Automatic annotation (TrEMBL):
Residues 1-24 form the signal peptide. GO terms for molecular function: metallopeptidase activity. Coiled coil: none annotated. It is an enzyme of class 3 (hydrolase). This is M48 family metalloprotease. PANTHER family: METALLOENDOPEPTIDASE OMA1, METALLOENDOPEPTIDASE OMA1, MITOCHONDRIAL.
Amino acid sequence: MSRTKLTAVSSVIALSLALSGCMAGGEIPSASAPITQSEAQMGAEAHPQLLAEFGGAMSGSQALYVEQVGKNIAVQSGLGNARDSFTVSLLNSPVNNAFAIPGGYIYTTRQLVALMNNEAELAGVLGHEVGHVAARHSQRRQAAAQRNTLLGAAGAILSGILLGNSGLGEQIGQAAMQGSQLLTLKFSRTQELEADELGIRYLNQAGYDPRAMASVLQSLALQNALDARVQGRGNANIPEWASTHPDPASRVQSALSTAQASGATGGVTNRDTFLTRIDGLTYGDDPAQGVVEGRQFIHPELRLAFTAPQGFYMVNGTRAVTINGQSGQAQFATAPYSNNLDSYVTSVFSGLSQQQQIRPQSIQKTTVNGLPAAYGTARVNSNNGQVDVTVFAYDFANNRAYHFLAITQAGGVSVFNDMFGSVRRIDSQAAANVIPRVIDVVTVRSGDTVSSLASRMAYSDNQMERFRVLNGLASNEGLGAGQKVKIVVRGR
């Protein structure tokens, strides 16, 4: 959760409406049609808001490198005749995500870049996103969704949850957690494959190894599966790139077949150059946005912390921290505060649905670790039975308040009681102890093994598997002296 924190969900929906309104209608241009004036204007208007939604644009040598590779691959699309036709941004986000919008705006997160192992993979991911734009997939999605504006769709998601059209496992996470998921609708499998094919075509034209698209999809699929196991989930359906780019695992073989069918042989990967250029890249949570360490969430700048329940896992986003488990879900966020906790709790409830009023039966006052607090629960009927929606808010003084928004089956809110009671201030020493993780590129020496290098990973669990996935190594693959590899260490 960034220092800018969560604003009202309505502001994100407004951005979605702005995007969908500009994209809607008209004949779908061919994949080779250049950027139009209206597309350029729409992209320029949406760009600052998208940066804010995904942690902001990074600067420095790593961002310049990503920009260079992105522009070089984007010009292969025919969307623009010059590299200056495109804006390529490296986002300060700890999620695996990449996307592009009309107007030549292309984005990838630092976390997804850290998962890659060569420049061809970076070019492939960015080329895939450019392919979506070149094929005007956004316009096609919006044309198919014209029956509902995104505002209506957002309300319908929450209404579906409360009325039983969605299972408890989806709950608030799809309705109000991350506004980024309201920015776009999911691409179809056909569109995904078409973007893969266009990205591979661009790789060929630029002289890269076209097999890089398959290898980065494989790494992403393995990372998704690893995240699911580490977090105690039974599936790999949560990661962000998979939410708008579904099922990377099933696309690996298709991408490899497409690359082989292209007839291209060889092509550069620029592995060592890539690894050298991303050395030192922040990995995982940025302390400026708070960090998740096991069951703990700690925000050194906001000087707060809390503990998730046993058996739950957390995902830290730009606008909120989500807490997920079999028996409920919650988000930790903030909203405008006028030093009245009752009004604050009421306003959070009021913002939940445009379709129906959700009000707590009462608002109770309490104190949590010295913090004034207030909470209320609303019971809502659904087709799957009754559910309880709870808002638990805390006054941090100086016009700052934070809250949990939780949903459980009726009578099940006690699963979050320990978490509600764990919110606390942290002192300067605890804040100073929060040190980011970074990518450290090292050269394998004689005698180094996967095991010995994995033991240097800055994690207390799954070190070997994390190392293999990070470096794209198969389960039985070893290392050779002189080879460059990535490890994750604590920064300074």
